[in-house]
């Protein structure tokens, strides 16, 4: 890479951002959009499994006669296994490609869904949940990476946010499934809730093989002609495709004037030696990128979204809602809200920028979590039902979900999938996803114990404190990436002046 040339490119991009900040977002290429949509179906499956488990746990506990600790383990074990899956997915996607890694994720999840739907006893149910978790780890790592690598800089925010939108849509479908199948006989209802998730896995496994491979992965394999052909399909103009191709060649350490169709590439371009460059001998920019990715994934769940999504029926019950139907309906409302506002976020990401949305989102979450903690504390210490506290608790939950969905939720996946250099991207993203799943599992498996120890209001005050730390971290460690090509990210993280500019809204 030529530093001076790349620095000039970044400086030109700075001025373009300032002059063109009010312009309409770039038109999305239809084929790139189709690729991102199909690749994101795996995220619907994961979201469904998360959402449906929130209600299914009520029926599983009653049917299989399990205790709260077993419920916590059942809820959280998926994320522990997803941690393993995400770490394996990074190397797998470098070896067999982004597209076939999605196929692997679908097959693994299908097997897990069948076992969960069968679920004659707790051990079989846990086995299915563990297998599904490995598939989830693959899905969470590969869907945003695939979307990011087929997107242009001007549309990457919208397309890379699709997996998070699909997760929310899946959660909503899971909540609706709870409400519909919850009316069936006890032994049948929850098994249908869990087993039906296998159907879209089959559809996805066949659909994704019709989609093109990531051109960036093809370049890393030395398959230049194929990469260039796909870039012409997923770019709006020939000039854009040529420019993107040259940028990818430079980022891969290849001659940008290379005219060969297929070339031999070093093993380092195929994913070998990546862990050393990420963890043992990272350059200063890569170190900052890794810290940013790990931090944003940690705070996404450390601020309490999993507690709200997975245990919302219990939260509403603590607030004073007694009817099982009303509990499930209120939970459906959480899913609708989450989905709608992530959809709003997809239109804002490439216009308002990642940083501005992220800071606004986290600030709103701090207010909502503090209010929820206060209301639940008042309800818990009152001997009679407090209608105002019940109402405000529900409002606080919805406000929290709104602010999370408009910023931190989708931006976590967009940001972490776009900041790593090309040859480090798959495995770097897998580290972030592993941290994400570990944090998610910790919250899932400990929330009931935490609120029993410090009260449910105290638990949400704790999440509010984490949100304050998150805001501080985002302000100092996450520069703006809106409008940057994937090949420019090292430059964004390499100099302090870039960070300073981003704080002033320039980058």
From TrEMBL:
It comes from the Eukaryota. Its main location: membrane. Residues 35-482 form the Major facilitator superfamily (MFS) profile domain. Residues 1-21 are annotated as: Disordered. It is found in: Membrane. It is a multi-pass membrane protein. Gene3D superfamilies: MFS general substrate transporter like domains. The chain crosses the membrane at residues 31-59, 71-88, 100-118, 124-147, 159-176, 188-209, 327-349, 355-376, 388-415, 454-478. Residues 1-16 have a biased composition (Basic and acidic residues). InterPro entries: MFS_dom, MFS_sugar_transport-like, MFS_trans_sf, PLT1-6, STP/PLT_plant, Sugar/inositol_transpt, Sugar_transporter_CS. Keywords: Membrane, Sugar transport, Symport, Transmembrane, Transmembrane helix, Transport. Belongs to the major facilitator superfamily. Sugar transporter (TC 2.A.1.1) family. This is Probable polyol transporter 6. The gene is LOC103340061.
